[in-house]
Structure formats: C-alpha cells, structure tokens
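Ticket #4471: complex job returned nothing on first submit. Input attached below:
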Amino acid sequence: MHEAHEKQLEELLAHPSVWRGRSRAAVETFPTGFAALDAGLPGGGWPRSGLVEILTPHPGVGELYLLLPALAALSRLLPARWCTWVSPPHEPFAPALAAHGVALDRMLIVRTHLPLWAHEQALRSGACEVALAWLPRASPRAVRRLQLAAEQGRALGVLYRSQKFAGEASPAMLRVLLEPLVGAGNHGARLHLLKSRGGSREPIDLTWAPAAA
Amino acid sequence: MRHAKTLSLFEPGDVSAAPSVLRVRPAPPPPTGPGSDNEAALALDPRELWIAAHVPQLSLLSLPAGVSTAPLVVLDEARNPRVMDADARAQAAGVRPGMTLGAALATAPDINARPRDTARELALMQRLAGIAAAFTPQVSIESPDGLLLEIKPSIRLFGGLKELCRQLRAACLADAAFAGSAAQPHFTLAPTALAALAAARAGARCFITDPRQLPARLKLLPARVLRWPEDANARLLAMGVRTLGDLLRLPRAGFAKRFGPALLADLDRLQGRSADPRRRLARRERYTGRVDLDHEIEDHDRILEALRPLLDELEQFLRRRQRGITALQCRFHHYRAAPTTCALRLAAPEASATRLQSLLRERLANLQFPEPVRRCELRGGALTERPLASQSLWSPGERGHAPANEMPALIEHLRARLGAAAVYGIGRVAQHRPENAWAVAEPALAAVVSKASAGDPAVGAPFRRPLWLLHAPQELDSQRGRPRRGGALELLAGPERIESGWWDGADVRRDYYVARDGRGARFWVYRECVGTRKWYLHGIFG
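Support reply: We reran it on our side without changes. The output follows.
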C-alpha cells in the first residue's frame, strides 16, 4: 500500500510543470551546440519553449555566437518556422550567418518602435521556432507576458538585455550572464547561470566555433 | 402578390417535367427533317439541362433614368438608325421595333429617341450572371440579352428542379433594374442550350426535361428566334419557312447546300445532335460594401464594431466563391475633411472576417482621423484562389504541425501595424563589398529550405566575417596609425584587402582587420587604403 503511494507520488512529481528546489526540471530541450553548456543546463540544452534572458555587460561579447549553433539547427527543422529578430541593434550579416550554417530564408527581421509587442506577437503566433529581441527596458510584468507567450506558441524566446538588470527579479525560465574572456588567445566567453531550474552553479567557459570554411 | 407570381413562373402546368422523370430514355425514332439522315439516331439524353433567361427590352431597361414623359424609343448604333425598342406609350402611338428613325418620327413626332447604351446593357447582364453564378458555375451571357445556365449538376443541391428555378427567378427579379418595370426576364428550361434560348426569345413557355418532347415544343416557335443573318431569314421566309417546325422538315442535304454548314450545325445543336459547349463567364468581381453610421464615431473600437457586419458579408461573399482576397481598402468619410483611406495588404489570400478585423485593428491603431467618421466603405481587392486547408490536429509548435497558416499570418499581423518595410528577410549577394554582400529580401513562405540559402560551406567566406554589420561604417579615432574606440584597439588578424566596385562609382579600397578592445569585444575595422587613410568600424563579431 505504502509503496503504491510512493509510486504515485513519484509519477506526480515527474510532471514537467512541477519543479522542486534545485532538482532538475523535466523540460523539453535541444542541444546548444556546446558540450560544456549542455552539461550545465537543466535538461541538457536550451528549453524548447520558454524565455531565456541573456545579459551582457556590453554588446559584442559573443551573445550571438552563443546562439549560433542553435539558430543553425532550428532554421533547418522541418516543417520550417521563422527565426525572428526583433529590433536587432545592427544588421545581421547574411554571409556570416550562412557561413555558420544558418538557413537565411527562415530569418525574419522586424524593425520596430514597439519591440515588446512585436516579440510577444512572434512568440505567441506559433509561427516561430525562436524569436530574439533586443529590448532597452522591460518590466518584470512584460517579461512574464513574453514567457507565457513563448509557452503558448511553443517557441524559444531570447531576450538580450544589459547586465545592469542582473539584480532584478525576472520571470524568465533561464537567465544567463555572459562575460568576455579578456586576454585569452581564443575567442570565447564565460557564462554564469543566474537563474535556472537545477542548472550548474559554476561558471561555464565557452569557445566560439569559427565559421565552417 | 409578387411571391405568387414567383411561384408560378416556371409553368408548373408542365407536369411531365417533374424532376423524377430525369433519367436516360431510349433514343426516340429518328424524325424526318434536315437533321434526320437515316443513320442519325438522336443522340439526345438529358445529360444537360439548360435554363435560358431572356431580358426583353434590355436596351430600354438599361437607359439611365430620365425625367421625360414623352414616349421613349431606343435606337441602335447603325449609321442609319433603326428603332430597337419602344416603350408602351410609343408602341401605342404606332412605333414598332425595326422602324427607321424617320419612319418612327413620322408616326409619332413627339417621341424621345435615345441611342442605346451598350455598356449599361452589359453591366445589367453581368449583374444577372453574377446572381446566376450562385446556382451553377456554368453561366454564359448570350450577347446582348440572353443568359444561359447549365443546371443539371445543381438540382439536388437546391432541393429539386422546381425549387432551383423558383430561387433563381426570385434572385434575378430582386435586382434593382426590374423594380417597378413591366419587362421581366423570361425563363425557359430545355435539354439543349439553343432550344432553351430560342424559347426564351420567343417568350414561349418551355419547361422540358425530356428530349423527346423537344421537337414538339420547338415546332411552333418562329424561325427568326435563331437570330440568323438577315439574308438567311429573308430566304427562309421566301421559301415559306416561318417556324422551326418548317425548318426542321427541310431536307438536310439541300439545306446544307443553300444555307451552308454553319447554320446546319446550329440546327444540330438545337436538337442536341452535336455538342454545344459554352464558354463559362469568367467573373471579375469585387466586394464593395458601405455602412452609414448613426452617429459620428471617432473611437477605433466602435468603428471596428460598425465594420463587422461588412466584414461578415465579405466573408460570406468570399466563402460562397471559395476565394480569398489579398488586398482590402477602407474609406472613412468625414463631414468636411477628405476621406481617410487605409489599405490592407495580405501575404496570403484571406477570407476570415475575424482575421481581417484583427488586422484592421492593427492598421487603425496607427491611423489618425481628422474628424469623426460618418460613413465607412469597404472595397475588397481582386479575388484569388484560396487553397482550402484543413485544421491541424496538432497545436502550433507541436511536432507534426505544419505552420502553413501561421507563418504568413505573423507577417501580415506585424506589417499591418508596423508597415511593410519594417518586416523583411535577408539574403546573400555575390559581392565583395561587405555592405553589398547582403540584401533585404521578401520573407520566403515556402515550407522547405531552399538550397541557395542553406548555408553551403563552399560559399562561406574564407575569411572571418562579423555577425553584425553596421548600417554605415563608423569613423574611429586613431593614434599613431592605430585605431581607438574607448581605448586602443588590439589588431588580432588582418589585413584582408577588399578592393572592388570601381565600375559603379562606389569604389572601395580597404584593409580589414579583426580588432579587440580592452573589454573583450571584437570588431571588424578597416582602414582606407587611399586618401585620408582613416579607420572605420564596420562590424561587430557579436
């Protein structure tokens, strides 16, 4: 009798929406393309749907390289869905993306003065595998909306924000702080998981892959 | 009153024509006559059923309404004008169709003679054809005043032949042109197109589904209803041939010799001996609707509410035709200010009122009305084929779900609010100058990844390229020939010389380097090889 209850309880706790303390949540993920990062992330990769916040001290520290393998993989999935870029700071350079194996005709660039609205629409629509957004500011409420929209549209939402928001509470599923590796000969960055459901507490060092040439 | 008339229209006395007798019957014994060479057993079967509608006095009906009370006469466009139609008063005064203008004026000096208006005649017939198209796709206009419908396949859909005829007549008579007019279209039903048309032109009762009854019914119709050339009619008259019955009795070989094979073919078609395909009318329709508001409204939500009935009507209009629209125009009329227009362009054909309303909501959010709105007009673009997609079993994003609808929908939704230029795709261009090596592209809606864009490694740049390109190169400070940005930039790789574009005036000669600043960010910088030799920031490695 007692054992049967135990078993039932175990089944209940294995449900994806139940998360206990630092135990690893059972989320659907896909590989990031970096073995070290996969090992540190709950579920062994980026969440399949949900919001990821990437915080950087300043642009150009590798925030895009971090996602490149994922973008390349997602843009080749069938049936194809969009990879949407909402108000990126500069023009995504098509030849470089293509050289990293990203399928260009799945890319959708949105230039807007309403990035929050556009990002939510993209995530909620169900037409995007991933939607990246660069937001100057976003309240926790807005981030919560994005998180819900991403779950509804089964999309990976990525929010690029400044490091100065690291202290704020955030409803995002995963928060990542990216620091450049200064002085190292190779091209890479150090990554801290600020918030994750059971991810690594240690910083993770990553090296960016050069373009497939 | 009107309703009773409607019910009686298709000669219900013709009891044998009930739909239950629609079945193939053995070919009747070959009749004698021009169509009746001994070997030619009648190839008639009620595989086809044609309804003809003839609009008598079409040219009179189509005249723009005038205020004159004088007897009205319409003239054809010939050099020596003849009377085409005359209204009741003119007829009473003795004017007959076919008279020359001089003769008509001599008979009744006070007539109001007007030239015919062919454009309006055609418009009226096209309107009727549009109404008829709701009953069958096989509709053709028999210029100028006839309409032909093949309705055999539609009988069951409309609950029987009589019901179909009743609905068709009611729908046609509801057209504004026949309101308050004595001239109403005359409908006939026959197994061949020409027979139905001939009976309709003669104004005769004809409700035949059985081909065997056709000769008997045609017998008494005047021969001129076939509208053959004048000289042929005159020769027939001289031969004493007045009715179709007389005509069909003529020997076939002799008839062909005297009148030619074309008219013989007409007779064959009349009797159903040879096929008589008609070209379907290709309709160029657009939806237009308007709503006059009870009050002047400025609030966008209430305007959308007022537009909703129009959008529902539009959806019905499109669904009935299984079509969609890719453009929709709204005009909002004000008291004094010029009307505000708002055009919606769609990436894929759309027919759903709910979707259109949500797109309009986004568009209206950007629209400022100079004054409150008094009237709204909706004008749909050209109709396009709309592939009918079934509902997906999976919810969006689940494996197995093909986001065929969501992908264009997202683009439309974003574009409706942000403008068409704000949403774009990117593509590569085979150019060495970095700023020319990519281009804005229309987002691809194809479900498969095309080969060109699939990141073919062989095309990949042999040198490192940054993931970000600045909109325009940004000039950098320099110190002792070294670039600075915040602090000194450390050059990690380079130079890579790019020298190109002398042919189109945008000549560049640059040495590109990969640089790193003190905080670890990597940049793509270049130095002009000529002129000022300044340093520029062109890309960020991201």
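Chain B touches chain A through 64 residues (CB under 8 Å). Closing as resolved unless it happens again.
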